[in-house]
Amino acid sequence: MSEKTILKLQLPTDPLWVKNVVESNIEELLTDHAFCEQKAASNAITLIVQNPNLSELVQEMALLVQEEMDHFKRVHDIILERGYILGRERKDNYVNELRKFIITGGGREAQLIDRLLFSAMIEARSCERFKVLSENINDSKLAEFYHELMISEATHYSMFIRLAKKYAEEIDVEARWKQFLAYEAQVIQNYGKSETIHG
Ligand SMILES: [Fe+2]
Ligand SMILES: [Fe+2]
């Protein structure tokens, strides 16, 4: 994701989140992060189940499931290397708040586009959080790991936006994306206080 695209997120994360919150509890960050990857894979599976007729989407999601589970495995490897054990899944309040923005009525196209944009939004914010982590964390191995993941999540973000544009017939994707960005900017204001990826 280019600098400019990241900046489309209306509120950047304060790097002090890394210094003051994350670094004091890396174990918690890693457990939460592992489950973010699992949830990204689960979301891709749900998209396949809901849209079996959209062949390009099914192909992309099948690849995405593999990639997100590879990320999961790599986070889990780091957890084990450091002598930790994966904790239980952490609630992701940020994602749950974002999910409320997905349209409930509005027909099949509107629901599909919203689900794709919701997914793009999480990839975009995760990408931004990984960037802030990679640039600020006092741990060279994690800095390198988060840099690599930042690039990967940027690719996922672009893929979801591309799919939304491909499958939109009536809906103005750019206009809806702007609404998502504005909503996300309100939601994220209350975060940056805990040692979770979207915390
Ligand atoms: Fe990932
Ligand atoms: Fe991703």
UniProtKB/TrEMBL annotation:
Domain of life: Bacteria
Pfam families: MiaE
GO biological process per UniProt: tRNA modification
An example molecular function term from Gene Ontology annotations: tRNA 2-(methylsulfanyl)-N(6)-isopentenyladenosine(37) hydroxylase activity
PANTHER family tied to this protein: TRNA 2-(METHYLSULFANYL)-N(6)-ISOPENTENYLADENOSINE(37) HYDROXYLASE, TRNA-(MS[2]IO[6]A)-HYDROXYLASE
Protein name stated in the entry: tRNA-(Ms[2]io[6]A)-hydroxylase
Species this chain originates from: Mucilaginibacter oryzae
